[in-house]
Amino acid sequence: MSGGTEAGPGARARSRLTVLSGPSGVGKSSVLAELRRMAPRVHFSVSVTTRKPRPGEVDGVHYHFVDAPTFHRMAAGGELLEHAEFAGNCYGTPRAPVERALAAGLPSLLEIELQGARQVRAAMPEAQLVMLAPPSWEDLVRRLTGRGTEDPEVVARRLAIAKQELAAEPEFDEVVVNADVRSAATRLLDLVVGPVPGA
């Protein structure tokens, strides 16, 4: 990759790993799409999941879609940096691409669920945890119920999980409120490529 935002002095010696998490419906996909446009040099980890693709999702771009046996083989073989079950599906971060990017000095971003963020914090205490939050709880409810792609029971379960995730805000280093996609992406970019403590 070429172009984009540079990571600043010291990035080659010690690159920054940022973990982005937030409740379903908060707009993570939209913010990350804008961030990709703004900073093509940033390494974006592509998670592995057993979830079925949603309309418009591309294998290898949005997720690596695999079946359950393949996922469990990867987890057992130590190929995943973290893995967790969320809303009945398994998600995980392939270890090798992240390690290669960090070794090359590229600022790297993982978008994972709360369980996975906690695993990364335990394994890599220097990782920066960022929560993407809605402007209000009412806004998040509107976003989830307005999707129209899931039945009411699934939406209710996602809202219950969202409450738990938002309650974990004190565990995160930074909170970015997604009231406007471009503004949220700009703030996130500042965090991803900012100076690395001790670099």
Automatic annotation (TrEMBL):
UniProt main location, coarse: cytoplasm
PROSITE patterns linked: GUANYLATE_KINASE_1, GUANYLATE_KINASE_2
Residues the record lists as binding ATP: G22, P23, S24, G25, V26, G27, K28, S29
GO cellular component, one term: cytosol
EC class (word): transferase
An example Gene Ontology molecular-function term: GMP kinase activity
Record flagged with keyword Transferase: yes
SUPFAM superfamilies attached to this UniProt entry: P-loop containing nucleoside triphosphate hydrolases (SSF52540)
InterPro entries, per database record: GK/Ca_channel_bsu (IPR008145), Guanylate_kin-like_dom (IPR008144), Guanylate_kinase (IPR017665), Guanylate_kinase_CS (IPR020590), P-loop_NTPase (IPR027417)
CDD domains with a match to the protein in the record: GMPK (cd00071)
The entry's keywords: ATP-binding, Cytoplasm, Kinase, Nucleotide-binding, Transferase
Similarity field: Belongs to the guanylate kinase family.
HAMAP family hit by this protein: Guanylate_kinase (MF_00328)
Summary of the function given for this chain in its UniProt record: Essential for recycling GMP and indirectly, cGMP.
Designated name of the protein: Guanylate kinase
